[in-house]
Amino acid sequence: MRIAAILTDVEGTTTPISFVHEALFPYARARIAEFCKAHEAEPEVAEALAAARALDGLPEIDLDATIALLIRWIDEDRKAGPLKTLQGLIWRRGYEEGVLKGAVYEDAADYLNRWHASGLSLFVYSSGSVEAQKLIFGYSDKGDLARLFSGFFDTAVGAKLEAASYERIARDIGLRPASVLFLSDHPGEIEAAKAAGLQVARIDRALGRDETHREDGVLVAGSFAPVDRDFF
Questions:
Q1: How much is the pTM?
Q2: What does the pLDDT look like over 5-61, one tens digit per residue?
């Protein structure tokens, strides 16, 4: 079936893993205490702090203890909704101030622009929050790429290793699964998307830009360039 849309992962696919773990996470960790103390009365921050306490079953702890909890979650790389909200708010300030720039591989930016111009619909599905996705692409080192995307999905739609999540995304965007091409660096995500009926290609940045091979019939490519040649 002809591909009508591309659904892409972020970390390891369009964006270096190092950017997330060596730039974004440390940036938020260094600022989360000051940010929470300065903005705890604001509704969105207050709600996230209360949700963090509730999530850990500690509704009565004070702000300092809540901040300590959030920092522990950062160190554990815990994918908790309240933490993602607060990180997103901190990152937004960094992006808006020009301190942060979303790192996007050159080939990813190039082909996302080409595919959008050719009429393909583009979507993102990442374990990072929708807000974080929009910031990485909207304030990227390759310009505003957020404008290219028709929609963003995070784990609110379901876990990335479950086929049902990809089925739900296809329904949400109004397309048959077989007309959606999913790109990710994660073999488990590729397996889940394939089980849901999506077309798939795995990006392996350890390969050369034009290097490819196949695993169980799935294209594994070093960049977006071989994906374009193979599918379009």
A1: 0.92
A2: 999 999 999 999 999 989 999 999 999 999 999 999 999 999 999 999 999 899 999
| Residue 119 buriedness (CB in 10 A; 0-12 / 13-18 / 19+) | exposed
Do residues 117 and 224 both lie within one domain? yes
Distance CA 36, CA 41 (A): 9
Closest to 108 (Cα-Cα) out of 29, 177, 173, 205? 205
* Domain CATH code at residue 149: 3.40.50.1000
Task: Identify the domain containing residue 215 by its residue range.
Answer: 5-16+103-231
Number of domains in the chain: 2
Helical packing angle, 63-76 and 25-39, nearest 10°: 170
Residue 91 and residue 58 in one domain: yes
For 64-84, what is each residue's pLDDT tens digit? 999 999 999 999 988 888 999
**What DSSP letter does each residue of 22-51 carry, written as one string?**
IIIHHHHHHHHHHHHHHHTTSHHHHHHHHH
